[in-house]
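Write out the 3D structure for:
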Amino acid sequence: MYKKILAAVNEHLNSEISARYALNLANACGAKLYICFIAEKGMSVSSLEKAEDAVKRLFIDAEKMGIAVEGITETGKPVEEINKIARHEGIDIAFASTRREDVERRFYTGTVARNLSLKLSCSVALVRVVHMGRIHPKDILIPLKARIASMQERAYFTAKMAGCFGSKVFVFHATTPITKFFHGEMHLTPAQWEKRLPEDISEFIEHMKRYKVEIEGRLSPGAAAKSITVEAASRRHDLIIMGASERSMLSSILRGNPVEEVLRETPCDLIILKPRHEV
């Protein structure tokens, strides 16, 4: 599915860490890696040198791993230039790191990360780096809703990420608490929750098994975002992979946005995947 992978790099260290997720995915998929740096107007000499050094390090490491690699440097607005490159080269998925503005601003519409997710015609993986030195995750948490869009690509992406690091996958679903008239909330055993597993999640797990990925499932009643961050922290997961939110701005204002909440509170690295392919 992924034959051409793009990693957007800038002067910040977290962008290089994000690109290393792309590098490892390219290795797992046998894909060509494009390392892209867009120099914005008014960048300092120091910032330019930091970005160029990151591109060089990534290029050398890709060659050592036997990955077909190409470096691309352009000048202009990052979203516009990356979009041009993605279309011209036929990129399948692009990786970009989130910036401070993505974490600090509610409803991150208008940020570089959000605009890349919305405007690129290829799939997009937005990476929030929390632990600079933990680029080889052993435990990957996959929060899933009852209905899963683009299931096959999400399963493929998850399986390849797990495969390249030898990771175990933990599928997690935050269920709506069950209430009983006059008796308040009902507390079910894990086996009872398992019987209530939504059909899409069962199908996702079957996809994972076909990829020979070590997988474990877990259900927990409660609010989605809080349940995800507590699960990641308490069980010391190394990486969370979530699907991008499909809620409108109005819906996010009225009901909240779990993806943005996890983006702000995540205790480990986080990848937000915007899939645009099907197998």
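The mean pLDDT is 84.
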